[in-house]
């Protein structure tokens, strides 16, 4: 899946950084440079699991190759196992 632009609203970025310790750079790195796995999870919502410096799970919507981040957090053991199988 090709993503050209990643948009993170300031309030979402603040929550993700404070609550989960995930930076914008990690999110962009996973979506642009890593080979994440993607899965549709309902409606227009997608999830990407990838590894930059650590495994990260990112929820987002996609329109015209522009990702609007909903949330992101460190991947749990089950998500990491799923990523490694692919």
Could you explain how this protein is built, in words?
- The structure is a single chain.
- The protein is of the alpha+beta class and 86 residues long.
- It has a single domain, classed as Nuclear Transport Factor 2, Chain: A (Roll).
- Helix content is 34%, strand content 40%.
- A five-stranded mixed β-sheet has the order 1-5-4-3-2.
- A hairpin with a 2-residue loop joins strand 2 and strand 3.
- 21% of the residues are buried.
Structural topology:
Layout lengths: L4 E3 L2 H11 L3 H9 L4 E6 L2 E7 L3 E9 L2 E9 L2 H9 L1
Parallel strand pairs: 1-5
Antiparallel strand pairs: 2-3, 3-4, 4-5
Attribute tags:
3 helices; Nuclear Transport Factor 2, Chain: A; globular; alpha+beta; 5-stranded mixed sheet; 40% strand; 86 residues
Count of discrete domains: 1
Q: Please, how many helices?
A: 3
Number of DSSP E strands: 5
Distance linking N and C termini: 15 Å
Q: Going across the major beta sheet, what is the strand order?
A: 1-5-4-3-2
* Average pLDDT taken over every residue: 93
> Could you give the order of the helices and strands?
EHHEEEEH
Computed Rg: 12 Å
At CATH level 3, the topology is: Nuclear Transport Factor 2, Chain: A
Helix-residue proportion: 25-40%
Tell me the strand percentage band: 35-45%
* CATH homolog superfamily: Ribonuclease toxin, BrnT, of type II toxin-antitoxin system
CATH top level class name = Alpha Beta
Note poorly predicted spans: none
Overall geometry: globular
SS class: alpha+beta
Examine the secondary-structure arrangement and name the CATH architecture: Roll
**Major beta sheet, specifics?**
5 strands, mixed
């Amino acid at each position: 899946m090709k993503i050209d632009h990643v948009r993170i609203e300031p309030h979402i970025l603040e929550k993700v950084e404070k609550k989960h310790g995930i930076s914008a750079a990690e999110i962009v790195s996973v979506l642009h440079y890593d080979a994440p796995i993607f899965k549709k999870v309902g409606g227009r919502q997608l999830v990407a699991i990838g590894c930059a410096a650590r495994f990260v799970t990112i929820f987002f919507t996609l329109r015209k190759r522009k990702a609007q981040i909903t949330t992101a957090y460190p991947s749990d053991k089950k998500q990491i196992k799923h990523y490694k199988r692919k």
